[in-house]
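Journal club prep, shared notes

We agreed each person brings one worked example of a sequence with its structure written out as tokens. Mine is Protein fluG. I'm keeping it raw so we can talk through how to read the token line rather than staring at a rendered picture. Sequence first:
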Amino acid sequence: MDWFAELKTGVETAELVDAHAHNIVALDSAFPFVNCFSEATGAALSDVPHTISFKRSLKEIAELYGSKSSLDAVQEYRFRSGLESVTAKCLEAARISAVLIDDGLELDKKHEIEWHKRFVPFVGRILRIERVAEKILDEMITYADKIVGFKSIAAYRSGLEINTNVSTKDAQEGLNDVLQAGKPVRITNKNLIDHIFVHALEVAQSFDLPMQIHTGFGDKDLDLRLSNPLHLRNLLEDSRFSRCRVVLLHASYPFSKEASYLASVYPQVYLDFGLAVPKLSFHGMLSSVKELLELAPIKKVMFSTDGCGFAESFYLGAKKAREIVFAVLRMHALMDLSIPEAIQAAKDIFSENSRQLYKIKAVSGSFGSNGITSLSPTKLNINASLQGISFVRIMWVDASGQHRCRVVPQKRFHDVVVKNGVGLTCASMAMSSHMDGPADGTNLSGVGEIRLIPDLSTKSVIPWAKEQEMVLADMHLKPGIPWEYCPRETLRRVAKILKDEFNLASRMSFFLLRSVLMDGKENWVPFDATPYCSTSSFDAAFPILSEVVASLQSLNIEVEQLHAESGHGQFEFALGYTTCTNAADNLVFTREVIRAVARKHGLMATFVPKYALDDIGSGSHVHISLSENGENVFMGRSGATRYGISKIGEQFMAGVLNHLPSILAFTAPVPNSYDRIQPNTWSGAYLCWGMENREAPLRTACPPGTPDGSISNFEIKVFDGCANPYLGLAAIIAAGIDGLRKHSTLPEPIDDNPDNVKDKVQRLPQSLTESVEALEKDDVLRDLIGEKLLVAITGVRKAEIRYYSENKDAWKNLIYKY
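Then the structure, token by token:
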């Protein structure tokens, strides 16, 4: 059918990023060419020509070379043409645009990584941790090369049941055993291997590098029983490493179903099917990849060739991968996926998933061109001081939504803070927007101290101050024990209850202000006075806006669009969809970037909800969808669904609507927030929802590409720039969970301006006082957010109410805080 022709074209033309391979060897290497077709060694190699995989693969190589289909004829062609010629032919036919090489495999006369760059636009290095340890012990050398990830072959040595709490004493005894065995060093002691593995994970997490792990089948050195990825469960459950992404190699064959399960329940687990494709029979390859996709999100499954020694192995891996992925996606296109979704799945599997995981940036989509740029050194150079980093900002967001930081010298950060954090008073989560001290009624005071533990996966060079880095922190009672008031931990804890993945995109508005002197005093006035989507406004602000976008891109934050808004000097940025914790992190970093770049240009950027009472307000709207295994489950799948929303989507959204008055205490946290939430201002002043109704606080949306009659997401408009994003999103998820548990349903949508039918709809809280009263009565949020944190939040909010009611013009100072 034409459908499948379109899918086949999409698969055949998709770019390939080979995420796991090995060095190519010289023509006269002692490494046998027959190993291109098998993992067998020694006498077992004589049986390889009798395997189905060998016969199929040899025929395909012979067709590529135009030679007879025999091993002798193919080898004769290789020697006659020369290694450079056959390598160029194979890799050009494979259409691989990037390859990541594990050069820790010892091969006779293997070419160095630089040699491979003649044939592929981008070549990255994967560091095999056990081999590095062996070489250090053999030669006392160190490595400072750029790398894109780590790799472990613990499965070959002592198995995957890693003891993450192995003692230093046991590791030292293991080291002594290894050294006493003499050279060449081969590390097989389990305690030492586990010790190396755990510390390598710490380094990988520190520099946001993935860890590839050999799982499943291999050569005869492997005990297959110990290579089942289910043995990794204790490691995956260890909270210290919950942010370190691990890649299970080789489809974990014959444990592909087990690998798929792990990737479906652990957010840090990814899958790679190299080696299984092309080394298995056609049915074996097909069933293995099919099993990976049975549970695992498509966004977590990746292609690689596991090419090793010979260019032909890269070609075969690429060719068979296209055939197998097409065959699997064709089956799904009959039942589960539309053709465009299947084509996108192919692109994700072949390149996009690896690009994101290994941080490979594309500058051109054409094969054979310089389509890949080098990786960001700020993320990959293990010795950060080489980049001129002097200081590290350790950042957190308090209960009032203010961004705060502690700054430490770079050396102390790595020597002390990474492990032990920095001290912080417990009063830090009781401060209001007007006072750096604990608010009454929070049950927090200056007595007691917590630890700010940096989340190293968020560490980045500061775009506007490149001699500094910034990192977001979690709040712990002591390292490894989260504090119950920690906003980031609260979001993670609540999101974990939700079985579906919670994805969102942010739309944030802000004002650009310039300083003028009036009667000898500094005043901040709007940057301009142009209308909505004004081209002249965009031109005037372009130097600032373009620098903001470049800074966000350097932080891997996607900007989908930007424009001038309706207010004087007001602009809006739309960020791309991502998971909830990443979205909250991105929101924090985006606020930081916008304010800093504006300051650099002599302006002030403010996210205050109502900068001028006679002008439009600024929001920080969030667009929310739910997904399961990479599929949008908020969207209705047939005409029988209510409003084009799935049953799960409706229940979740109904829960949010029911608890919206209480949620406002988190998402609209200062009295000024309610000056913004007024009728006829597109801010959502009534308790209702509507389909593409911008006057409703909850608006369902169907952007371009959404099937007719279906809804892909819903927008929450009553979220502003003073909100702590972690607490705001935690409250929204908690409300959605309540809707799912109670199987709540939505009332009829409002298809008119709610202010025109105000007799039919209820007003949302018109003050912070009203939203706090609603929150104090909300047992559901109390249970899911936590009693102690809720007491602190209400104490801070009541302090805001008192202060701003007694100081009528004090709201004007909010521009210096938000």
